[in-house]
Specification:
α3 crosses α4 (108-121), α3 runs parallel beside α5 (137-149) and α5 runs parallel beside α6 (167-182). The strands form 2 sheets. This protein has a 6-stranded mixed β-sheet, sandwiched between helices. Strands 2-1-4-5 form a 4-stranded antiparallel β-sheet, with helices on one face. The chain has helices at 42-49, 71-77, 93-103, 108-121, 137-149, 167-182, 194-200, 218-224, 230-238, and strands at 2-9, 19-26, 31-35, 57-62, 65-66, 78-81, 155-159, 186-191, 203-208, 211-216. The chain has one domain (2-238): P-loop containing nucleotide triphosphate hydrolases (Rossmann fold, 3-Layer(aba) Sandwich), CATH 3.40.50. By secondary structure, the chain is an alpha/beta fold.
C-alpha cells in the first residue's frame, strides 16, 4: 500500500537530518504504528506522507501512485487526523463536519446522513449543535477523527490521536478505528504510548534519530527480544548510549 525508499529530510538551517535513509513498506489493511520518542521523526514522516511538506530526497509510492507526480490522486484516497485539533472552535460540531465534508465534495444528502450516523456511533450525536470551544479534549478528538474520514479514505494517517484524552474517549476512539480497519481501511498511526500500540497495532516500526530501526508485529517483536512488553523492547532499542 505504501512504499518508502531512501527518504531524507533536512529542515532549513538544521545541521541534522530529521529523516535519514528511511525505508519502509506498509501493507494493505494494516494498522501500522510508527513509534518513537519526541524528535524521532514520526511527525515529519507523517507530514511527508500526507503531502504537507516535501522531502529533501527519496521516493514514496502510495497505492501505485508516485508522490512526486501523482500527489493530487493520492490526496483523494487518504485521510489526515493531525495531532493538533483541525477544528474551528467558534463553530458547532455539525458546522465543522459540514465544512470538511464539502471540502471533500461529499454530496449534501450523503453528508448529512454520515454526520448523523457517525456522531451517533461515537457518542457525540447529542452534542452536534454545541460549539467546539465548549468540548473537552476527548470530545474534540472524536470530532477531529470524523473530520478526516467523511470521504471514506482508503488510508488514514493519525498523528498521536489519543494525546490528552480521557480513558473513556480513548477506548471509544480505538474501538472505532479497529472497526474502520476491519472494514478495509489501512491505518498509519504515531504514538509514544507503547502499551496502547502493542494492543492496537498489527505491525509497528520503531524509529530513532530519523531512522527505522525495526519493523515487525508487536507480539513477534516481544518474543524475538525475550521481553515482557513492547515498551521493554522499545527502551532497549532506543536507549541513549
Amino acid at each position: 500500500m505504501i512504499e518508502i525508499n531512501k527518504l531524507y529530510k533536512k529542515y532549513k538551517n538544521s545541521d541534522v537530518f530529521a529523516l535519514e535513509d528511511f525505508n519502509l513498506e506498509i501493507k494493505q489493511n494494516e494498522i501500522h504504528g510508527l513509534l518513537g520518542i519526541n524528535g524521532a521523526g514520526k511527525t515529519t514522516l507523517m507530514s511527508i506522507l500526507s503531502g504537507l511538506i516535501e522531502p529533501t530526497s527519496g521516493k514514496i509510492v502510495i497505492q501505485g501512485f508516485n508522490q512526486n507526480s501523482d500527489l493530487n490522486q493520492i490526496k483523494k484516497i487518504i485521510g489526515i487526523v493531525p495531532q493538533e485539533y483541525a477544528l474551528y472552535p467558534t463553530l458547532t460540531a455539525r458546522e465543522n463536519l459540514e465544512f470538511f465534508g464539502k471540502i471533500y465534495k461529499v454530496p449534501t444528502k450523503e453528508l448529512t446522513e454520515k454526520i448523523n450516523s457517525l456522531t451517533e456511533k461515537i457518542g457525540m450525536l447529542k452534542f452536534l449543535d454545541k460549539k467546539i470551544e465548549s468540548f473537552s479534549g476527548g470530545m474534540k478528538r472524536r470530532i477531529n477523527l470524523l473530520a478526516g474520514i467523511l470521504h471514506q479514505p482508503e488510508i488514514l494517517f493519525l498523528d498521536e490521536p489519543t494525546v490528552g484524552v480521557d480513558i473513556q474517549s480513548k477506548l471509544i476512539l480505538l474501538d472505532y478505528l479497529k472497526e474502520l480497519n476491519q472494514q478495509g481501511m489501512t491505518i498509519v498511526y504515531t504514538s509514544h504510548h507503547m502499551a496502547e500500540a502493542e494492543d492496537f497495532c498489527t505491525c509497528v516500526t520503531i524509529m530513532n534519530n530519523g531512522k527505522a530501526i525495526i519493523t515487525e508485529e508487536p507480539k513477534k517483536l516481544v518474543k524475538q527480544y525475550n521481553a515482557h512488553s513492547l515498551e521493554e523492547v522499545f527502551v532497549s532499542l532506543t536507549k541513549i548510549s
